[in-house]
Amino acid sequence: MFRPTGCLALFLLSTALACAGETVVAILGGQPVFEDEYRFHEERVKTNVASRIMRLHGVDMSPDFWTTEVDGVTPGETLKNEALRSIARFRVVQTLAVEQGLLEAVMSYRDMITAFHEENLRRKEMKEAGEIFYGPVQFRKDVYISVRLEQLTRALQKAALSDEVILEEDAVKTQLEEIIRKRIDSLIDANTP
Amino acid sequence: MTLALPAFGAGSAGVDENPVVPLNGEPTYTDPAEGTYFLDAVNGNDNNDGRSPETAWQTLERLSDVRIKAGEVVLFKAGDVFTGRFYLWGSGTPQDPIVFGAYGTGAKPLLQGGEQDVEVIYITGDRGLEFRNLQISNDYPAGSIPHRYGIRIQASAGSGDMQHFHFHDLDFINIEGADPENESRAIMAEALDFGEEPDSLRSRFNGFIVEDCLFSNIDGRAVQFHDRNQSLSDSRIRGRSYYPSIGFVFQNNTGINIHRNMLQLQGTKDAVIQYNYMSGTNEGSAFWPFDTDGTLVQFNDFRHLRNEKADSYICHFDYNCIDTLMQYNFGYDVDGGLVEIIVLSDFSFFQEDAVARYNIGVDVGFRNKANSAGIMLSGRVTRSKVYNNTIVTTNRQSSYKAIAINNWGGEWPDNNAIHNNLFLATGNPSTFDDIGRMTQAGNVLSHNLYHGNITLPGADLSPVSGDPLVLFPGNPDPKPMDMMIQAGSPAIAAGMLIADNGGRDFFDNPLPDGLVPSIGAHEFQTEGMGRWAGFKIGDTGYVDTGSGFLGWIWVGADGGGISNWMYSVSAGQWVYLPEDYINPGAGSWLYLYDSAALSPADIRGEWFFAQAFSTWVASYGDSVGSGSAWLYALDLSGSQ
Questions:
Q1: Does the CB of B397 have a partner CB in chain A at under 8 Å?
Q2: Cα-based distances in Å from B68 to B37, B74, B87, B560
Q3: C-alpha angle with apex A119: A115 to A124, nearest 5 degrees?
Q4: Of A43, A61, A132, the CB nearest to B80
């Protein structure tokens, strides 16, 4: 049986989803990366990527900053890679949580955005009703997603700490980050055309 | 049990409340037409006039050369990176502040310190300033500068009333210097100690607001507000005049991975710290006040706090404070504990009238040191009240402490009260440290509930035991709602009456004056069915019962006077009130209001289910109308 792989799979999936009104910019772990998700993560890492390149290589921002090669790679390419790694982290942490029984299912970016709006609406209504709640009255989108991922990462660390083998917290954090990094590498290497 | 990620929120889809962020697009910022000066790191030029996006300046240093006037607006281009620092020259007013913000579309402009820049923005003596929609970083851990800052503000002698410093929607990410002492700050505001000064020369901040900001990866403190000029301790210890900073508000901020503290506060009066979320310290509490007067800390969510040496508490009251109130805070996985009230018993240091109430701590108080406990008082702590907090521990740490009383030599805590707190040790042991001190020096420990792997301390004058029936004490992703108690809990109506209790529990349930409270942070409710405590009628309003309201019908068996009997309408008989519920010292509900109204034949009004008796009883109301009044259960005081 013919099974499309690699770039062909991306082409077919992209075409199908594009027909449905969605723009797919990449495939990670067999799942499409839609443009809005990509743009969100790109924006999230953009200035930090620029800052790192400027500092490491002593270059200034210029009109062609993102397209001029630095050590054989353009900052634009680095930005794209970093944005995809940010997306991959979003998915890998959730996948690990599902595997550990800490989460029922991986949420897509759009599911997360829906949850973000629901959370803010809930908080707004509670505030207006004079009810007591805790934490911010309204989250910003990027802060909400950061908080959710941080909570899941903490939960994964807790799960590892509760294993029979007692590990120090710092050791668990280091090991978990290594696992996440390898999974991200795997997703990026295997699926990015 | 799984972490139900969507359960963090609930309800239907809403709208984005941030006016500058469209629902499905990149954020856009201030309309360029509102700008006075523009900076564009890519296309700008410092030889331009800076007055339009087309003639923008390029560098931060250029700003140091211009005197900015009140009401002017300085805008940085979105998505750009500006490296360096600037020294602010110019002041605004509360009515016409100088505003720093962003223009264009995309990521917030990043202002980052260069390798030799101690701070990104330096302000001294100027005021009337607002900062919005900027990202600020300053990190060179391998550099030569020990401590780095994002925004650094210093009030020089004679600065007077430094009005209007607002920080809104800023992202401080990566603030780190070279010093291993971890003392960098995202925002540092200082009014130094200039000694006793005439009125014309003294300095303070007036109107300092930090809100909707993100602090992430800060190798020190996110915000340190450090007014040492004629503060409370200057006044009380050194006899100087009192000129505290006022109008300090820190709210709606998020902190992730901050080495020491999200906020350390000094020299304020009536500061408000609320609605903040903080996860992850290595060496400290999320927040602590020092040398402050009347600080209010509420509705915060502080998690994963650590310090292997000391502190690291959810509610941390530090030296030389009076009238600090911490309430309705939630914390989880905090090695220090839930409540720490401390002061050195030396010199004339003081810590007076602190109140910690209706807070919840889960898995707290597990640092293996004497200075760690669910509730810890240490040193010359006077007249503090710690009541109706819930502390739940599990088996995730090897041991916990529930209460610790300490000092560092000299005096011990005196005249403090620890009441109505719920200690549930579901897993590994929870112990006490020098708890006998709570029977000395006017201290009182009573009406606390202890259950699980914890012993009832002899120092508690009226301990309560039994499973408090906490809803989900072992939830690996604990939320406050998990710590609610259920019907039949021995915590219900078992507390001691506390005057001026704030009127509400952690979950917004009412605490009518004079009503015997439950133990812990949850005042048990059975909405619509009544209960021991008062309850809210309906979702939008209340029933005004008038002064003649009798919450529940009960009469003395002999037709008058105090008795153990109450009439149950549904059972059609009198029910007996156990002695535990007949405690004249604990509430007003035993006093007859109007014996003529106590006839069972006169019953009208609402019906309630009495959890304690598993039977229906009825209330009596003289009038029904609108207004804010609580229905009382077992309250015949008629005072509402």
A1: no
A2: 9, 9, 11, 78
A3: 150
A4: A61
pLDDT of res. B569: 36
Cross-strand pairs, B565: B576
The predicted-structure confidence for B54-97, as pLDDT tens digits, reads as follows 999 999 999 999 999 999 999 999 999 999 999 999 999 999 99
Helices and strands, counts by H and E, chain B: 1, 47
- Please give the model's pTM, rounded to 2 decimal places: 0.83
Interface touch A54/B299, C-beta < 8 Å: no
Mean pLDDT in chain A? Answer: 84
A–B CB contacts, 8 A cutoff, strictly below: 174
Q: How does pLDDT run across B85-138, given as a tens digit for each residue?
A: 999 999 999 999 999 999 999 999 999 999 999 999 999 988 999 999 999 999
B538 inside 8 A of chain A by CB: no
Mean local confidence (pLDDT), B540-568:
33
Find the CB nearest A36 among B4, B6, B24.
B24
Query: Which residues, numbered 165 to 184 in chain A, qualify as contacts with chain B under a Cβ-Cβ cut-off of 8 Å?
Result: 169
Coil/strand/helix, residue B75: strand
> Does B10 sit within 8 Å of A118, measured CB to CB?
yes
Q: Angle between the A75-99 and A141-161 helix axes, to the nearest 10 degrees? A: 50
Helices and strands of chain A, counted as H and E runs: 6, 2
**Mean pLDDT, residues B378-405 taken together:** 96
Cβ–Cβ contact B80 with A under 8 A = yes
B565 touches chain A (CB under 8 A): no
As given in the structure block, the two tokens for residue B495 are 């507390």
Chain B residue with CA closest to A169: the answer is B306
What whole-number percentage of chain A has pLDDT above 90?
Answer: 59
User: What ipTM was estimated for this complex?
Assistant: 0.85
CA-nearest of B35, B73, B42 to B59 is B42
pLDDT category at B39 given cuts 50, 70, 90 is: very high
Please, what is the angle between helix A141-161 and helix A169-191, to 10°? 120
Report the pLDDT value the prediction gives residue B83, as an integer from 0 to 100: 95
Query: Which residue, B72, B536, B9, is CA-closest to A135?
Result: B9
Q: State pLDDT tens for residues A34-87.
A: 999 999 999 999 999 999 999 999 998 889 999 999 999 999 999 999 999 999
Q: Do B256 and A146 touch (CB under 8 A)?
A: yes
Distance CA B119, CA B373 (A): 38
Tokens 């609605």, located at residue: B275
Judged by CB atoms within 8 Å, which residues 39-68 of A form the interface with B? 39, 43-44, 46-48, 50-51, 54, 61-63, 65
* Min Cα–Cα distance to chain B from A61, Å: 5
pLDDT category at B509 given cuts 50, 70, 90 is: confident
Q: Are B579 and B564 in contact (CB under 8 A)?
A: yes
Residues B161 and B191 sit within 8 Å (Cβ to Cβ): no
